Amino acid sequence: MAILLGVDTGGTYTDAVLMRDEEAVIASAKSLTTRHDLAIGVAAAVRAVLATSGIAPAAISLASLSTTLATNALVEGQGARVALIYIGFAERDLAAQGLRDALGEDPVFLTAGGHTHGGAEVVPLDVEVVANWAAVQEVSAFAIAAQFGTRNPAHELAAREAVRMATGKPVTCSHELSAKLGGPKRALTALLNARLIGLTHRLIGRAEAALRDLGIDAPLMVVRGDGALMSAAQAQERPIETILSGPAASIVGARWLTGADHALVSDIGGTTTDIALLKNGRPVIDPDGARVGPHRTMVEAVAMRTHGLGGDSEVHVSDQGLVAEVTLGPKRVLPIALVAQDAPDVVHAALEAQLNRSTPGDHEARFVRRVVGQDDVGLADRAKALLARLTEEPQPLWDVLRTRLDTQVLKTLVSRGLAQVAGPTPTDALHVLGRFDHWDGSASRKALQLLARKRGGSGDRNADSAEAMAQRVVDALTCSTGTALLEAAFAADGLDDPKALARHTLLHRGLRKAPGLVRIDAGLGVPIVGLGASAAVTYPAIGDWLNAQTLLPKHGDVANAIGAVTGRIRMTREGMVTSPHQGLYRAHIGGTPQDFLEVESAMVAVENALRQSASTGAETAGADSVHLHVTREIKRADIEAREMFVEARIVVEATGRPRIASHETETAL
Asked: Within this chain, do residues 573 and 468 fall inside the same structural domain, yes or no?
């Protein structure tokens, strides 16, 4: 009998679950996620689940981690300052695939080089110029993308060696993350990977240390965005592959918990709501690569629609128009109930002082605190000055912001993970309505009172009471989540413009069964599986709003942690065979392409190399016994009544269960 430990670090909670041989849940526990040091939350959750179960730490045979860290960082625009080295591309190529927007103020260096479609060098790469530029950049990591780098990665490899020698900092090459063409999209993927390296290193390193300190010496796995597992070491090198790790684990967990073959799975966390489709008992994979927020990457992942909508979403009340509109997100803020529990004197004193003012202010019920231990490389002087005024204890926002410019500077600090803002959230609204009682609900009530007394464009108050304001916030959450589910359903059905369809007036008349000369009935045709800590109190209303069956499984609040230990290791490698001219076949394998006179010889060479690479990758990831599956996609064309070879794509998939430590099952007593 093997004892398996699953851990999920979400935006608000860190969950831990112990399972017996993937067959039964022994125990589960939660602790608050501690963003300044994630190991504290991990250790607290694991310590709690061990105490509840009576299992000794030494009895654990395998530990697996899923995390929303990468997803949340990209949704919230966080990550370290990095640099992009763009080889063989023009300035105009930065506009493609949202690359320029993703770069923001981070440096980019365009230089001559790259290869042709067939893998031939266009012009030599000046590695000395690359090294000299890299040496003076104040960044934490580098991303490198070369034109047709997947057909010949020689320039990416040479640039990486030069940058490493000049700086000693981590370097991500685009060809290592995807074998597909599309330079700007590969560059975006490499850039985001580089930006996440520091965050992921801290998370995994501290998680491993926390487990060791507790006496757990089992192998540590990490969930990828497609639901498969990888080793902790691989995750530290390729953190971009952990995009949607937590949501992917929740899909695997939802299937295990419900046995549903066909359903929409919706997981509400603190920062995001993640929606995916279970079809024939398997999560649907996105053929275009993982999308998170505005970014479309080349990472294979579950077809997940991630919305900046969660229990900790920032509440906005518009003062435009006659009726003040309540909207949520996409930014996450700390719930007032949570910061009041951490610093009750400061928070309650500030809220009461604000309630006693006759005129509402701009930053009421808003607080800010500094996050220690984060990288502040490259901050402008004004940002450094504002950061110096922040403390680890929350401060009222109006005491910190001295000019209008400071508001924008604070956004920079938050995006870099150097500061956290607290404000009213749906979690606070649930506290006020008595549906949630985890933290300081009295502080939530004061914050919602402040929000209620503000006036919209008509001059009327936003609400008559804290309870009425809280209900408006929860109604906004119901409507926004329901609309997101409709959007996902329309997209899965292959309809054009699912966003517009999900908001169409006729559809909403049908959902409400509105009376009229034309009778319209509408609703979801598949069940909703509601997951997450607040699912039990939010999803019944969402199911009613959508006229859909809602499944709220036992242990659904720790589905991510369950999915983390019920997945499989899967490594996919792909390569190409092209034909530069008739009678010559080029195998694109790793470094310099190899030419063959027979197409079968070229394909066998690629297949053998991929078999070796996939097997090694799976074994390195910790697979016990590896099974290989090979597919060939051959393109041919009829030219002058003759069938001519165009290209072949070869994919090798290696799968296996992770190795587990050989331990006797023990109890603590």
From this structure: no
